Amino acid sequence: MLELMICSLVTILPDYLYRRYVQGKRFGKEITFFSVWYELRWGITGCLMLTVSLITMIFYFHPSTTSATLYFRTVPILPEGSGRVADVKVGFSAPVRKGDVLFTLDSSRQQAALETAKRKVAEVDAAMQSAQADVAKAEAQIGEAKANLQQAKDELDVKTELQRRNPGIVPQRDIEKLQVLVNQRQAGVDAATAVRQAAGLQVSTLLPAQKASAEAALDQAQVDLDKTIVRAGVDGRVEQFLVRTGDVVNQLMRPAGVLIPEGAGRKVLQAGFGQIEAQVMQPGMVAEATCISRPWVIIPMVITTVQDYIAAGQFRTGEQLLEAQNAVRPGTILVFMEPLYKGGLDGVTPGSSCIVNAYTSNHEEISAKDTPTSRRIALHVVDGVGLVHALLLRIQALLLPIQTLVLSGH
C-alpha cells in the first residue's frame, strides 16, 4: 500500500492535474466513477507498472523474511551407562555450573568391583614381598651350594696331589668319587642360581606387570564408579528435570532432562531468505530485526555468515531413488546475524520468532571514480528505496502486538 501511494504521486496525480487544469475535466462532471478508469488510464497503468517494479526492486535488493529465530543448542542430560537413580541433586529448573552433580545412580555393583580391584592390588603387593623373601632364600642356597662345592674341590685337590706324589697311596676309585661329587655340587650351584634368577624375574618383571594390570583394573573400576555420578558438562540451566529417585535412565530411550548452555540463543540470529535472493545476500550487509518477545524495538544487525548450501537439497543414501517432485517447498538461504551493538539482543527470549530486513549498500561502487553516472543514479535509487522497507518494518513492529494479541484471536 505504501509503495502504491508513493507511485501514485508521480503517475496518477500528474495525470489528474493535466485532465483538470489543461483539459478542464472535473470530478463529478466529465470524470465520474465509471469514466475515471478511462480518463486516468495512463496514470493508473503507469502507477501499477511502477508499483510492481518498485516492490520487486525493494524486495530483491532489500530482502525481508519472517522466518527468523534465535536458535540454540540443548544438551541432553544422560549417564554414560544405564542404571537406577539413587539421589537427585537439582530441582525441575535450576542454574548449574560446570562440574555440579545433577544426580547419582545406584553404584553397588561398581563399588564391589572397585573393592575387588583394591584387593587384587594388595594381593600382588603381598606376592611381591613373598618373592623378595624367595630371592633372599635363593641367595642363601647359592652360598651354601658354593661352600659345598668348594669343600669337594679342596678334598679332590688334596687327594689328587697325594696321588701325584705317591702313586697308589690313594685309590683311583676315591678320586673318581670325589670328581663325581664336585660335579654334583656344581650342578647344585647351577640349580640354586637358576632358582635365584627365577625369583629375581618374579620380583623385577612378572609381579610388576601383574601389579600394573591390577592398578589398571582399579582405575577402570574407579572410572565406572565415577560414571554413576552425573555432572553438568557446561555452565547453564537445567530445564524439565523430572527424573526422581528410583527412575531408570539410559542413553537410548530415557534421558534425565535438558541442559541449556549459558548464553545459548543470545548471540546469533538465524534467518531464512528466499532462494531468489542468493546473489544479494552477502556477509557484511546491514540488517534490522524486530522480535515478538521484544515488541516495538528495532534491533540493528549485521550479517556475518551466509550458508552456501540450501537444506532442502540434502538427502541420505537409501534403497530408493531420489524423486525430485517430492521436494514441494523450496528451501531458503540461511544467514547468521549478530547485533551491530553490544547487548543488542538483551531482552529477546531465545527461540523467539523475529522479522528481519536486510539492506543492500552500494556506497563503495557509487564512490568509485570509474562508475558511470547513469549507474550511480541507479544505485542511488536502489539504496534509497531501502527507506521504504525500513519504514514498513517499523510499521510491522508497531502493529505486531495488536496483530498478535487482538487480530489473531488469542
TrEMBL record:
<feature type="coiled-coil region">
    <location>
        <begin position="114"/>
        <end position="162"/>
    </location>
</feature>
<protein>
    <submittedName>
        <fullName>Secretion protein HlyD</fullName>
    </submittedName>
</protein>
<keyword id="KW-0175">Coiled coil</keyword>
<dbReference type="InterPro" id="IPR050393">
    <property type="entry name" value="MFP_Efflux_Pump"/>
</dbReference>
